[in-house]
């Protein structure tokens, strides 16, 4: 048996993505999906032939400042806006911690402007804010970011369209196919009711994208705290399971 | 199907148009170290150097200038682990013309009938989740004919998973998100 075979065998098959809790590829409310979402059905594959481990990123050095967006972009002062802590756990469907996995974050600044050449929203850039962060979960799957609460911003999807305040997150599981890119929203945001991207998620699963205000995560005199857990896919229940 | 006592999976959302800030900061000159680049493997790595390039196109055949492609492959000996000059993982963002490019080495294979390949995950503004596809090499016809994943694809659509050889060590793989010759995406 070669090395590669033993590596493959060490990975249990992955439970399927819960399509009923995820957006459809074409969503009438989100205009850009019309020409970009695939129309052909996804092709099912033999599960054991498709076991692909997530990349090994153990060599990547992640420092404390990488996870502190109020510090990692400073030029001549502090970024403007309301400081927040966003923290929680990365779990699989069975509630088990996903340890030592990298969580990536990007976001708009307090004024709702991204540090990106394509963003032409008429709102100020903040010279002391990049809007990018990264951290690695601990043995219990915990992650924690310090950042600035992002502003809402207009987009051109429909007349008077505004994105609710959100953070963009990207996560790895143990499988390459478990890649999760998602957005975290804030509780009580009135724009959620009008946002086609948030509402592309079937109603029963939408609350999974909304953080919870958590007084125990606040830092007195410094920052408000929001709790948010990520749930990745788990091992398949049977030797393998098909959708 | 959801099973009892399981936590609900976190739903996916689009990467949006500004993903480079977080996932490819070097592409827009942000002073933040990228986690991964277009370099799946460097010159240091064992194996035949290879460039994989292509375009991402929408249902009108228009270039998708804000797509993120992540690639995962085996090393020249068929292993998944990182090694000298070999990361086994890369990220590319498309340019104005929808073009992307990876630098790597020709992937090896595991025992069995698997043909050499790279897995790709495609995300973009207008995509509400990750699309998983797989690049095979058009000049590996014999092994492709036995590959269990390719065999799971309806025969008429298999050609969408073949990268064409442009020159020695240079291959082209276009990704059509929708429409005629829509690329095969897997339910993974
Ligand atoms: Fe956004």
Any overview of this molecule?
The complex is a heterodimer of chains A (243) and B (188). Chain A is mainly β. Chain A has one domain: Sandwich (Protocatechuate 3,4-Dioxygenase, subunit A). Helix content of chain A is 5%, strand content 22%. Chain A is built from 2 helices and 11 strands; from the N terminus they run αββββββββαβββ. In chain A, the strands form 3 sheets. In chain A, strands 1, 4, 9, 10 and 11 form a 5-stranded mixed beta sheet that branches. A 4-stranded antiparallel beta sheet of chain A has the order 3-2-7-8, with no helix packed on it. The mean pLDDT of chain B is 96. In chain B, strands 1, 2, 3, 4, 5, 6, 7, 8 and 9 form a 9-stranded mixed beta sheet that branches. Helices cover 6% and strands 28% of the residues of chain B. Chain B has 188 residues and is mostly beta strands. The chains are: A mainly beta (243), B mainly beta (188). Chains A and B meet through α1, β2, β3, β8 and β11 of A and α1 and β5 of B. The complex binds fe (iii) ion (FE). The site of fe (iii) ion has 3 residues of chain A, from β7.
What's the structural blueprint in terms of helices and strands?
The complex is a heterodimer of chains A (243) and B (188).
Chain A: H1 3-9, E1 83-92, E2 102-106, E3 132-136, E4 142-148, E5 153-155, E6 161-163, E7 166-171, E8 180-185, H2 196-199, E9 212-213, E10 224-227, E11 230-232
Parallel strand pairs in A: 1-10, 1-11
Antiparallel strand pairs in A: 1-4, 2-3, 2-7, 5-6, 7-8, 9-10
Chain B: H1 20-23, E1 49-57, E2 67-72, E3 89-93, E4 99-105, E5 117-124, E6 131-137, H2 141-144, H3 148-151, E7 162-167, E8 170-172, E9 175-176
Parallel strand pairs in B: 1-8, 1-9, 6-7
Antiparallel strand pairs in B: 1-4, 2-3, 2-5, 5-6, 7-8
The complex binds fe (iii) ion.
